[in-house]
Structures are given as C-alpha cells and as structure tokens.
C-alpha cells in the first residue's frame, strides 16, 4: 500500500474537508473486495510497464460478448432476452488441487450473456471477449477494499480515495467449457504489484504476484449469486467443495495428468491461464491449445520459456482411461527445445496437486 506523492496545501485541505461533508456516511463496509476501474465502461489506466499487453494484437479477441453459439459449432442457438435464474441444485463447485470451477446444468446460451454484466457489476471493465473460445477477460483493476479505514481517510471517506493507491492490480479471465448437460465455468486470477527497485526506494516497477485461489473461489461464489441462488446457499456450496485431484507427474519433457483426457483438457487449460500462458486458439477435435507467453508477465515465463509473439502448441494424448499426457510443441509441430519447459511443467504440476 502506497500513498501517492501529493502536496498538502491549506487550499487542498479545505477542499477535501468540504467535499467530505457529504461522504462521511459512505465509508467502506469492511468488504474484502471493492474493485474499481477509473470510469464505467473505460479501461483502468494500465500501470507503467504493462503497456505491451495492450499493444499486442494477439489479445484483441473478436466477439460481441452476447452470443455463445459459435462454441462447439452450434450456430442455431439463440440468446435469451431475459436472465434465467439458477438454483443451488443446478450448480456445484468442484475442486482439484488449488483449482475450483463452477458446474452449471444449464445451456451455455443461458450462462454466457450473464458473465460480462457480472464483471461490470463487480467494478471491472471488459478487455476482450471471444464466444469462439468461450473466454472473457477483464482489464486491470484495483481492489480498493485493502486501503486503510483509519485515521484521516476514515474521517474524510471517499474524499481522499484518489490520493491513495494500493500498489496492486488484478485481472481475471473467465473460461466456459461445454459439458454433456451444461457448462463448467473457470475463473483465473492474475496479479501485479508495485515494488521498489532498490533499497533507496527512489523508483518502482511492476512485477507479477502469485495467483490467488481464494479470490477465484470468491468470484465463483458471487457468480452463483448473480445466477440466482442465495448468499447462504452459495457459501454452503463453496464450503462443501471437495478436493478430488489425483495429481500429475513429470515424465521427461511431458506432464502426465492422472485423469481422463476430458478432465485434463479443462483443468490444464485453467492452469495455463494462471501461469501466464494465454490461450489464443484451440482445436477441440485434436485436443490442442495454441498458447503464447503473455507480454505483461515479468516473471517465470517471460524469463524462461518461449518468445513473445510466438505461438506454441499444447497437445493432449490419452495414455489410458485415467492418464493423459500433455506436451509442448512449436508452431510447426516439433517438440519445444527449451530448457524452460521443465519450469513450465513444474508450475502446471503444482497447480494440479
């Protein structure tokens, strides 16, 4: 948490006190989540050092954000004009390692239109969406709930909000996968934090911070409420989620997931997102993800795996009914010859525990 550099003058102080008169009753209620973009419908200013992300055309996914009929080749599906409520009986939260996902027994066409509104309701703007991929990605936002609620800020309320900065930014990617009787919804978090570049604390830079599974779980719970269940039911479903992960092992330059190819396809897909590899396309028939290192990632993958603006193939192969092999190939289909692959596999293995 950082206090922005400002010059306190008597004039500014007087202005703040006057503007605070109408906001004393609007101090934070103590919620742990209070995300805000600068302007409704406009992206939050990208922190310094993250601008490459916006310049990359690979991440400008096409889509109108209201249709989901293009997924699984279903061009006849129609978007409902009204939101259909879902009860807790129609939804469960499943868990494998750190990964949780929402299982909904409703057609994708009923779920997809709700997602963009859901993120906007929670203070985010939408960076991109792609019905073809079943992906909606938010822009960077700041969680204002972590700002201090004591001292001067507590007294003046929102009047001082613009003078404080948490030094963190978050973005979320929502991925929807069709199943035989509905959909599975995955939410992956990515975070950045502002840190000092030296002990003298004269300058700062932005760097990745670890994905937060608890934030992901909280937004899954909130999505259940958005879809129509009660707060109490959603909390109960989340609390009752059971870890059924069977783990994964590393074999040479491949990952062997102890699960069916269907399940491995979905679980590893989320792990790729969380690890900083963006899925830019996929071929379900051949069980292949097309990925590229995220340009705003200043961590593991930027330093150890792949090249920016290059695409790689992540291929899945069923070894038997309970084992699936995952391997990395370059865009020409040759095995990736990169020492960083081992770090990638280790990261994926840890997320699938």
From TrEMBL:
Residues 1-25 form the signal peptide. Pfam families: Lipoprotein_18. The keyword Oxidoreductase does not apply. Keywords: Signal. Gene3D superfamilies: Outer membrane protein assembly factor BamC. It comes from the Bacteria. Transmembrane segments: none annotated. The keyword Signal applies. InterPro entries: BamC_C, NlpB/DapX. This is Outer membrane protein assembly factor BamC. It comes from Ephemeroptericola cinctiostellae. The lineage of its organism: Bacteria, Pseudomonadati, Pseudomonadota, Betaproteobacteria, Burkholderiales. The gene is bamC.
């Amino acid at each position: 948490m950082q206090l922005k550099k400002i010059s306190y003058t008597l004039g500014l102080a007087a202005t703040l006190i006057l503007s605070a008169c109408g906001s004393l009753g609007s101090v934070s209620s103590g919620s742990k989540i209070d995300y805000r973009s600068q302007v409704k419908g406009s992206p939050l200013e990208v922190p310094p050092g993250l601008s490459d992300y916006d310049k990359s055309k690979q991440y400008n996914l096409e889509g109108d954000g209201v249709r989901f009929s293009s997924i699984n080749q279903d061009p006849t599906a129609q978007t409902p004009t009204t939101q259909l409520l879902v009860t807790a009986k129609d939804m469960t939260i499943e868990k494998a390692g750190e990964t949780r996902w929402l299982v909904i027994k409703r057609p994708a066409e009923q779920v997809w239109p709700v997602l963009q509104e859901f993120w906007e309701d929670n203070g985010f703007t939408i960076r991109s969406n792609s019905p073809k991929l079943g992906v909606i990605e938010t822009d960077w936002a700041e969680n204002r709930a972590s700002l201090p609620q004591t001292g001067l800020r507590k007294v003046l309320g929102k009047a001082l909000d613009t003078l404080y900065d948490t030094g963190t930014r978050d973005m979320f990617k929502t991925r929807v996968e069709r199943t035989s009787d509905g959909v599975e919804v995955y939410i992956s978090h990515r975070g950045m934090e502002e840190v000092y570049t030296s002990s003298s604390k004269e300058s700062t830079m932005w760097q990745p911070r670890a994905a937060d599974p608890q934030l992901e779980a909280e937004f899954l719970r909130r999505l259940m409420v958005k879809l129509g269940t009660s707060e109490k039911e959603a909390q109960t479903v989340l609390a009752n989620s059971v870890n059924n992960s069977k783990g994964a092992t590393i074999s040479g330059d491949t990952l062997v997931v102890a699960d069916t190819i269907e399940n491995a396809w979905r679980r590893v897909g989320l792990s790729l997102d969380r690890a900083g590899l963006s899925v830019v396309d996929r071929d379900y028939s051949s069980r292949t993800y097309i990925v590229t290192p995220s340009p705003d990632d200043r961590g593991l993958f930027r330093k150890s795996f792949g090249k920016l603006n290059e695409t790689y193939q992540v291929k899945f192969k069923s070894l038997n009914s309970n084992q699936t092999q995952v391997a990395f190939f370059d865009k020409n289909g040759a095995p990736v010859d990169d020492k960083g692959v081992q770090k990638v596999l280790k990261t994926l293995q840890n997320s699938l525990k």
